[in-house]
From TrEMBL:
<dbReference type="Pfam" id="PF17651">
    <property type="entry name" value="Raco_middle"/>
</dbReference>
<dbReference type="Pfam" id="PF17650">
    <property type="entry name" value="RACo_linker"/>
</dbReference>
<feature type="domain" description="2Fe-2S ferredoxin-type">
    <location>
        <begin position="5"/>
        <end position="109"/>
    </location>
</feature>
<dbReference type="InterPro" id="IPR036010">
    <property type="entry name" value="2Fe-2S_ferredoxin-like_sf"/>
</dbReference>
<feature type="region of interest" description="Disordered">
    <location>
        <begin position="642"/>
        <end position="679"/>
    </location>
</feature>
<feature type="compositionally biased region" description="Polar residues">
    <location>
        <begin position="643"/>
        <end position="653"/>
    </location>
</feature>
<dbReference type="GO" id="GO:0051536">
    <property type="term" value="F:iron-sulfur cluster binding"/>
</dbReference>
<dbReference type="InterPro" id="IPR027980">
    <property type="entry name" value="RACo_C"/>
</dbReference>
<feature type="compositionally biased region" description="Basic residues">
    <location>
        <begin position="669"/>
        <end position="679"/>
    </location>
</feature>
<dbReference type="InterPro" id="IPR040506">
    <property type="entry name" value="RACo_linker"/>
</dbReference>
<dbReference type="InterPro" id="IPR001041">
    <property type="entry name" value="2Fe-2S_ferredoxin-type"/>
</dbReference>
<dbReference type="InterPro" id="IPR012675">
    <property type="entry name" value="Beta-grasp_dom_sf"/>
</dbReference>
<dbReference type="InterPro" id="IPR042259">
    <property type="entry name" value="Raco-like_middle_sf"/>
</dbReference>
<dbReference type="InterPro" id="IPR041414">
    <property type="entry name" value="Raco-like_middle"/>
</dbReference>
<dbReference type="InterPro" id="IPR052911">
    <property type="entry name" value="Corrinoid_activation_enz"/>
</dbReference>
<protein>
    <recommendedName>
        <fullName>2Fe-2S ferredoxin-type domain-containing protein</fullName>
    </recommendedName>
</protein>
<dbReference type="Pfam" id="PF00111">
    <property type="entry name" value="Fer2"/>
</dbReference>
Length: 679
């Protein structure tokens, strides 16, 4: 088995016993410690920096010495990431455990709670919950009465008073019947599922049945506590998906499972623990208890879906991307290690190996299958899910956009937390920028901006800001159609500066600061390329579905709906400027928020909605972009801003597009378009 060492992480006090030579990052994962990493432990992001603590620690009975951690590594020596390694800090992915060790995780290396911007709109359908409450008054029993068992009496009274006769009582409820009747003075309220099974009993009169709808995203998990009778959202909560410590994107998590025996169990335990904690927080916020939760619905992409159920996700990481099941799944909270004794759990059906229950939820919410007009529904994330069509024919696909839209692979990219730049405007004449950050309502050119943001760490750009700065740089003539930051930029503004063989734009910070100053936030040529690759993959998937639908013209699309936490905050105009979506009139392009979560709420509140989505997904035509030869051609066409080959007459009427500019002197006649996407 090899030598084992104990590692304790402060300030949390979490610990793990790991084999000699384990990286500190892997030890943190085993311990469940809050240590950030967005590059999957490849020594690129610099976010997993830790401080080894030396000395004798009575609290943990550990002697932590310099010999307890490996010497400085070549990975650390060669590291050139944006966040410098300072002082005694080490890269957690490069430093290895050689003995019992105490490790401090600095605040900057912790995965802070994300600003979760997932709200739902679940209206326009009939509430018909799976679980309903029924109050009954039991007759006072006298010796010699032939009333039958408590279970029989309750079943009879429900049938008499409500016209529903539950045929069974869950065995775990049987021991609770007599105590509940005693507490309620011979009255009880029972929960009946689908009119057939008694799933819970409460003493006395209870008038509120609640359920929880949860959208399990790869980055964030959003939950909503809902009144099953009225549809009222009683509480909402959002947390980071703890699996992010195993990798920023889904494929890196699958790779973790492939390379680490038992890794699938770690992923399952991490997300189940998060779900359990979220439900506890939701009921506490609403002044209820876990026993009050009677039903739970879950949506998520195929990998999240399988991991929650304890199914090995590795078949979804390689062709032919086989699902263990694409059907809806009914189970119990207890089966998923969730402390909600009275709750059943319903997972919406999946559609294909890369199109999951979250897409089914979005379809249920936005209703392209109920529409006569053609609808394009795009849930933008690490993998973008695309649905195209109407009541006559629906097509669905997933496109490998990667995590660039969410800030990964971007030099100054960060998650949507306080201090992140989320809005950008560039003056067309002076080329000076102004920005808005999360946590302040002021633009940076407002005199009160500095005071209003004094407590914020403005250290990067989140997804919506990345889209806007790219669009603004293109509209201002700083970026060519092919995505090249122009080499004549320095002659126009000191904010454009030479950066190796390419050029960068200083978005935040003084224009004349030294290159690479930590206080400045720059947009590099590699950043532009990363966004080009992401948006081209998404657009190629959209165009591929249009072709399969018979070549629908952009002007014939009735509505374009951008869903998800990221899609909900994209300005539709900038989505068109970059060519993320077709040239449909901008007034038909809208952000619809967390459509997947809204679909989960619908499924929570209506048996008919569950039946509807189960029937609908069976008829969806699945298009696998990985095996479509045309996808690569469409990808190359989509690399340009807004598009290399497709005209944009609508966009030309909606904003002032830059005039064509001659290539700067010395520029290559053949511009690099970047590499093609890989899953």
């Amino acid at each position: 088995m090899g030598e084992q060492h104990r590692v304790v992480f402060s300030p949390s006090g979490l610990s793990a016993t790991v084999a000699d030579g384990t990286t500190v990052l892997d030890a943190a994962r085993h311990a469940g410690a809050d240590l950030d990493s967005t590059c999957g432990g490849r020594g690129l992001c610099g976010r997993c920096q830790i401080v080894p603590s030396m000395g004798h620690f009575d609290k943990w009975q550990i002697d932590s010495t310099p010999d307890s951690i490996s010497d400085w590594t070549s990975t650390e020596a060669d590291y050139t990431g944006r966040r410098p390694i300072v002082g005694d800090q080490r890269l957690g992915c490069a430093a290895h455990v050689c003995g019992d060790l105490v490790v401090e995780i600095p605040a900057a290396s912790q995965v802070h709670k994300q600003v979760v911007r997932k709200s739902v709109d679940a209206s326009g359908f009939e509430i018909d919950p799976i679980v309903k409450l029924h109050y009954v008054e039991l007759p006072k029993a006298e010796l010699g009465d032939e009333l039958g068992s408590l279970a029989h009496q309750i079943q009879h009274l429900i049938e008499r008073d409500f016209g529903v006769r539950p045929s069974t009582v869950e065995p775990r409820v049987l021991p609770q019947l007599a105590p509940a009747a005693k507490r309620g003075g011979n009255t009880v309220t029972v929960a009946v599922r689908r009119g057939e099974t008694i799933t819970a009993v409460f003493g006395g009169y209870v008038d509120r049945a609640v359920g929880v709808a949860i959208d399990v995203g790869s980055t964030t998990v959003a939950g909503h506590l809902v009144d099953l009778a009225t549809g009222e959202i009683l509480a909402t909560n959002g947390v980071m998906n703890p699996q992010i410590r195993f990798g920023d994107d889904l494929m890196s998590r699958v790779s973790y499972v492939m390379m680490n025996p038992g890794g699938e169990v770690e992923l399952t335990n991490a997300i189940r623990t998060a779900l359990d904690a979220m439900i506890g927080d939701l009921v506490t916020d609403a002044g209820l208890t876990r026993a009050d939760v009677l039903d739970i619905t879950l949506v998520g992409n195929p990998i999240m879906h399988h991991v929650i159920l304890g199914i090995d996700p590795t078949p979804l990481g390689q062709a032919p991307f086989l699902l263990a099941t694409d059907a809806a799944v009914d189970t119990t909270a207890a089966h998923l290690d969730i402390d909600a004794t009275n709750a059943s759990v319903y997972l919406l059906p999946c559609i294909a190996g890369h199109v999951g229950a979250d897409t089914a939820g979005a379809i249920l919410s936005e209703g392209p299958h109920r529409s006569t007009e053609v609808q394009l529904l795009v849930d933008i994330g690490t993998n973008a899910e695309i649905v195209f069509g109407n009541a006559e024919h629906l097509l669905a696909a997933s496109s490998p956009t990667g995590p660039a839209f969410e800030g990964a692979q971007i030099s100054a990219g960060m998650r949507a937390t306080a201090g992140a730049i989320e809005r950008v405007r560039i003056d067309r004449t002076t080329l000076e920028p102004r920005v808005k950050v999360i946590g302040s309502d002021l633009w940076s050119d407002d005199p009160g901006f500095a005071a209003d943001t004094a407590s914020l760490d403005i250290s990067g750009i989140c997804g919506s800001g990345i889209i806007e700065v790219m669009g603004e740089m293109f509209l201002a003539g700083l970026i060519d159609v092919d995505g090249t930051i122009r080499s004549d930029g320095p002659a126009k503004t000191p904010r454009v500066f030479a950066d190796g063989r390419t050029f960068s734009y200083r978005l935040f910070g003084d224009a004349d600061t030294e290159d690479g100053t930590a206080a400045s936030i720059n947009v590099t040529q590699d950043d532009v390329r990363a966004i080009q690759l992401a948006k081209a993959a998404l657009r190629a998937g959209i165009d591929l579905l249009c072709e399969h639908a018979g070549g629908v013209d952009a002007g014939a699309i009735g509505s374009v709906r951008l869903a998800g936490a990221f899609g909900a905050h994209i300005d539709p105009l900038y989505a068109k400027v970059l060519g993320i979506v077709p040239d449909t009139p901008v007034d038909r392009v809208s952000a619809v928020g967390n459509a997947a979560g809204a679909g989960a709420v619908r499924a929570l509140l209506s048996a008919r909605q569950r039946d509807e989505i189960e029937a609908t997904v069976r008829d969806v035509e699945k298009i696998e972009t990985a095996t479509e030869p045309r996808f690569q051609e469409l990808f190359v066409d989509a690399m340009g801003f807004p598009n290399t080959v497709t005209p944009t007459p609508n966009l030309a009427t909606e904003t002032e597009l830059p005039l064509p500019q001659p290539k700067p002197e010395g520029a290559s006649r053949r511009q690099r378009t970047g590499r093609r996407p890989r899953r």
